[in-house]
Design brief:
Length: 119
């Protein structure tokens, strides 16, 4: 599975200005990871990623706000990058974007401007 990575981008403002508990934000990322795994389960990279569960590589990044998350979502759609924009219901709040597993050299360029998620 060498070189396959999954990027998870969560909104930093959820904890910083909207006062969401960190656990709630982590739950959003978990929901989105599960959804993207289901949606792209038969993809060759997803299968390679799942074939070595003890060595999965995820990178958790922070989008500053809703606008930056939507800009990323649009860019990924335009580039035909398989991903899931998770929208928390019933509040209808976009909380994170998760891409399916990809080779790092193919996907990394989309996330250069984002920093690691910190609480």
């Amino acid at each position: 599975m060498s070189g396959i990575v999954q990027y998870v981008i969560v909104r930093g403002d959820l904890t910083k200005t909207m006062q969401w508990p960190v656990g709630a934000v982590i739950a959003q990322a978990c929901h989105a990871c599960t959804a993207v795994t289901h949606l792209f389960y038969n993809d060759e990279h997803t299968q390679a990623y799942l074939s070595d569960l003890d060595n999965m590589h995820k990178v958790i990044l922070e989008a500053p706000d809703d606008k930056s998350l939507h800009e990323l979502h649009s860019k990924l759609e335009e580039s035909k990058v398989d991903h899931k924009l998770w929208i928390e219901q019933p509040e209808n709040i976009p909380t994170c974007v998760v891409v399916k597993p990809y080779p790092k050299e193919v996907i990394q360029k989309y996330f250069k401007k984002f920093k690691l998620f910190k609480n």
